[in-house]
Amino acid sequence: MTVFESLHNTTDKAADNAEKYLKTSQEYFKLKVFQQLAITTSMFAKFAIIGGLLGLGLIFLSVAGAIAIGEALGNVALGYVIVGLVFFLLAVIAYKLKKKFDLQIIKLLSDKFFDKK
Fold first, then answer.
1. Which string of DSSP letters, residue by residue, matches the chain?
2. Which residues contact 72 (CB under 8 A, 6 or more apart)?
3. pTM attached to this predicted model
4. Ramachandran sector of residue 75 (left: φ over 0; alpha: ψ -120 to 50; beta: rest)
5. Which of 13, 19, 71, 94 yields a CA-CA distance of 20 to 30 A from 64?
6. For 74, left (φ over 0), alpha (ψ -120 to 50), or beta?
7. In angstroms, rounded to a whole number, what is the distance separating the alpha carbons of residues 51 and 57?
8. What is the pLDDT of residues 35-46, one digit of tens each?
């Protein structure tokens, strides 16, 4: 076997290995995209179901609380104002803590995206 034949065989093997590597990498990336899509879809579905039910519960509790506060104070409208102010205060607190929420979400998503275990 000459040097040229040996070089040709080595080049062919390298090309085959490179092609196999590209195909394997492509399959890996397809699976990774599917995994991330499945996780994201699952998160949104859970958020919609749980958030919707919690939202409905909060609405009913808020109305009942406002009526109870209003009856205790002798003015139902005042009960609704107090409950509204409580929600306003909670919104201001959540706005002040928004950066902490962002950091927690980024950390959670990065753990899932980069498969840190």
1. --HHHHHHHHHHHHHHHHHHHHHHHHHHHHHHHHHHHHHHHHHHHHHHHHHHHHHHHHHHHHHHHHHHHHHHHT-HHHHHHHHHHHHHHHHHHHHHTHHHHHHHHHHHHHHHHTT--
2. 79
3. 0.61
4. beta
5. 94
6. left
7. 10
8. 888 988 998 999
